[in-house]
Amino acid sequence: MKTLTLLTATFLISLASAPMLAGASGPTTWVVGVDAPTIQATVDLAAPGDSVRIPGGFYQEAVQVDTPDLFVYGDGIDVTILDGAPGYGAGISVSADRVNVSHLTVQNYRSNGIVFSNVEGFGMYDLHARNNYGYGLYAIHSTHGDISYSSGEGQGDSAIYIGETPFCDCDVHHNRGWNNMLGYSGTANSHLRIYENEFFHNRAGILMSVLPNEAGVEDDGTLYGTQVGTHIYRNYVHDNNNQTRTIGTFETIHPPIGEGITIAGGWNNHVYENILENNDYCGTCVFWLSTPARGNAVYDNIITDSRYGVWWDEFGEDNCWDGNVFGGNDANSDPATLPPCTGLLGGHDASCAGPAAEFAACRGAVDTQGAHAPSAPKLANLALRALCDLQPYEDPQDDLGCQPTI
User: Does the bond joining 37 to the residue before it have cis omega, within 30 degrees of 0?
Assistant: First the structure.
């Protein structure tokens, strides 16, 4: 027995000292500067399930993550800083599923701070995006994501963007965005929950839209909604009146200034229990952009100190408003009387809540008037807003009938 015990002990000692096969001992944490000299080289060492730690410091590189199930994290925002000033495009670009990025700052990149593209499952947490030319935190064609407890300032487009996904099932919550063109932007993107964020000192706070190149088109040319079924609630959206910089197409068409939460061409979105303060043009706007806005419900919000508490172009079926509390607006709504939500909340949203492939029945049920553009007075209002309210410093002549922004 003593001989067996000695052999067993010798075997265990030799096993403990032998090199282990990669992954045999469980997930590994790889450290930049210890295991490899750069972030990219360290990421390339990692296997699914591993973590990559980026210690506090200043890093100038662009990183591509192609390995799924990674945790990439820094030592804290403004402690671990990735900087694109030498001319890098994006800070961290992820093309693999179920990657989480957290606890760092991305700044001065020529396109976007952090990008997830064509992935299933993503996380962005405790991040700071600063002064990136395009977007701060960006996801496209991606599902089952969470962007939370992060901030963005100084982007040429929006602090946070999720787009072009028929059924996202994503959450955007507990974030802050300021001094961007837009706080949050979502185009042709459906089924999100946007809640308990603060967006302020942008041109506009939250914009859900269908851009002309993103509209769904039937074989007969009929347009249908591709921004659908998002719930926007308990956000604090205020003071979005800044002449912040713009990029690309927006350098010539001038995006809105003075809008709190806007649904532009979206369908079946719910906007409720938000506080909307001191957005010069409107607390909430609902209007045609590529498609008429349809089935949107705006209810139980507090809307104060805007030119219009609610502005609607009066087109698109089944839009409704209920239970909003107004104060200090020049006009609580335009039009003065808004359709109530009685009989629509719950029922209509459920009938059109599926992904794009399921919209046919809904379109047939609600398109009683056919596709149509806003009326001439509403178009004139939009044009006046674009020429005067939004870019007053670019209109030195006084022949447009402009009124000073309030």
Answer: no
d(CA 72, CA 183): 25
For residues 225 and 281, what is the distance between their CA atoms, to the nearest angstrom? Answer: 25
327's CB contacts (< 8 A; 6+ apart) are 302, 303, 304, 305
Residues 107, 210, 269, 145, CA torsion sign? negative
Strand 92-94 vs strand 63-65: parallel, antiparallel, or unpaired? parallel
pLDDT of residue 351: 38
Domain ranges of the chain: 30-153, 167-406
pTM: 0.82
Of 189, 184, 191, 146, which Cα lies nearest the Cα of 165? Answer: 189
Report pLDDT digits (tens) over 89-121.
999 999 999 999 999 999 999 999 999 999 999
Non-local (6+) Cβ contacts of 350 within 8 A are none
Rg of the chain on CA atoms, in Å: 25
Where residue 253 falls among pLDDT bands split at 50, 70, 90? low
Q: Kindly tell me if the per-residue pLDDT of 6 is higher than 50.
A: no
Q: Is 59 exposed, middle or buried (0-12, 13-18, 19+ CB in 10 A)?
A: buried
More confident site: 106 or 293:
106
Between 66 and 203, residue with greater pLDDT: 66
One-letter amino acid of 346 = G
| b/e code 243-273 from CB counts within 10 Å (16+ = b) | ebbbeeeeeeebbbbbbbbbbbbbbbbbbbe
First-to-final CA distance of the chain: 93
- Please provide the average confidence, as pLDDT, over all residues in the chain: 80
Residue with tokens 């694109």: 84
